[in-house]
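Collaborator request, handled under Task 6.
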Amino acid sequence: MSIWVKICGLSTPTTVEAAVRAGADAVGFVLAPGGPRTVDAETARDLAASVGDRVETVGVFRDQPTEEVLELARTAGVSTVQLHGSESPADVAAVRAAGFRVIRAVDAAAHADEGDERRAAFREDALLLDAAVPGAGATFDVAHVLAAPPRGDWLLAGGLTPANVAGRVAALRAAGARVVGVDVSSGVESSRGVKSVELIDAFVAAARR
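Structure tokens returned to the collaborator:
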């Protein structure tokens, strides 16, 4: 099964084009405030417009009011909203009802503790399992995934790099986990918040190997 690849935290035309050229399936723009990869909605709009319909465009949010999420997502012109905080099933439903595909990002350990009923209540389009501190370059114990395997499509994140992505996906698949995609941000940076074209190329190639 070919792996779906998202390069997140992009902020320049050069690195967005590098991700598309390398064969990424999606590019992500951080619209949550206060981080080293945050861009404003107008910048995200220009970057998303530059790729057209060649790849999926994702706006990343964290613990922001739903009204703000929708306003920024519309301004940015992204097709998908990634909710990476303590959003509720009602928040996910509201964003989907507004016409956006939703990726729900959650700490893998927290997901394992949610329970079947709560996990089912979210009805996200895709689930992203991450480390406790997103964007910090830390991995998580895959035992959390195996303890509560996601029922639908899900993406692996958390400390992925060109050197470890193939091995982590292979190990999870060998254990029976249905990994359909990977998400990377810090693992393709030359310094915090600064993406490397060379590392983007290497990551996509390694993920697809």
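The cover message to the collaborator said: "The chain has a mean pLDDT of 91. The domain at 4-208 is CATH 3.20.20.70 (TIM Barrel). Please let us know whether this matches your experimental observations."
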